[in-house]
From TrEMBL:
This is N-(5'-phosphoribosyl)anthranilate isomerase. It catalyses: N-(5-phospho-beta-D-ribosyl)anthranilate = 1-(2-carboxyphenylamino)-1-deoxy-D-ribulose 5-phosphate. Residues 6-207 form the N-(5'phosphoribosyl) anthranilate isomerase (PRAI) domain. It comes from Neogemmobacter tilapiae. It is an enzyme of class 5 (isomerase). It comes from the Bacteria. CDD domains: PRAI. Pfam families: PRAI (PF00697). Its EC number is 5.3.1.24. The lineage of its organism: Bacteria, Pseudomonadati, Pseudomonadota, Alphaproteobacteria, Rhodobacterales. The keyword Amino-acid biosynthesis applies. One of its GO terms (molecular function) is phosphoribosylanthranilate isomerase activity. Pathway: Amino-acid biosynthesis; L-tryptophan biosynthesis; L-tryptophan from chorismate: step 3/5. The gene is trpF.
Length: 212
């Protein structure tokens, strides 16, 4: 499984950044969503973004943000990408791209075939798609450790690069990649010991599973 690019989301300490960089991830995700156990203040986000070595892309994750919220994040820290993880429309994705001049990755929740219809349209607007498990009512928009039926993605193509997410861990990532053909994967709870607490041994184990 070489050439699979990994995004590890929900980092909370400088030690997490170092562990993710040393393990060879391509992206790190910083969550700005108050209800999340991985939520960061602007000061914490800035500290982590400044700790990232060259080559580790810094992704700010937000959920239905207004412009002032995004302005404050983008002004506070160096970023390489914005991840929109709410109900943002293709029009809103285009506005965010234009306003900040940063690539935008749009998360799309999938639970059944019906959810696939919007992916092609969104792939026209966004720079990347993150195809995640669709949360049930009352759950967080992401980071729930839930998988979905990967067979839904078999043989599908979109106009932009995409990442597979949702309940991935060292024990299932090989099957997920083999079945879906994903070239990029994203995860959060699969490398945690508790919600919001990254386990560096699990990060290494996951990266070994991807490389192996
Ligand atoms: O991680 C969060 O707490 C979170 C909160 C609100 C919106 C999105 C969130 N995470 C998005 C991610 O990119 C996760 O890595 C993705 O949903 C996969 O999570 P997991 O199933 O835990 O691996």
């Amino acid at each position: 499984m070489d050439l699979i690019r990994v995004k590890i989301c929900g980092l909370r300490t400088v030690g997490d950044v170092q562990a993710v960089a040393e393990a060879g991830a391509a992206y790190m995700g910083l969550v700005f969503f108050a209800k999340s156990p991985r939520n960061l203040t602007l000061e914490q986000g800035r500290e982590l973004a400044l700790a990232a070595p060259v080559g580790l892309a810094k992704v700010a994750l937000v959920v239905n943000p207004d412009d002032p919220t995004l302005d404050s994040i983008v002004e506070a820290m160096p970023l390489d990408m914005i991840q929109l993880h709410g109900a943002e429309t293709p029009e809103r994705v285009a506005q965010v791209r234009a306003r900040y001049g940063l690539p935008v990755m749009k998360a799309m929740g999938v639970a059944s075939e019906d959810d696939l219809a919007g992916l092609m349209e969104m792939s026209l607007a966004a720079d990347q798609l993150l195809i995640d498990a669709k949360p049930a009512k009352g759950e967080l928009p992401g980071g729930n450790g839930l998988t979905f039926d990967w067979r839904l993605l078999v043989g599908r193509k979109w106009l932009k690069p995409w990442m597979l997410a949702g309940g991935l861990h060292a024990g299932n990532v090989a099957d997920a990649v083999r079945l879906t053909g994903a070239r990029q994967v994203d995860l959060s709870s699969g490398v945690e010991s508790a919600p919001g607490v990254k386990d560096h041994a699990k990060i290494r184990e996951f990266m070994a599973a991807v490389r192996g």
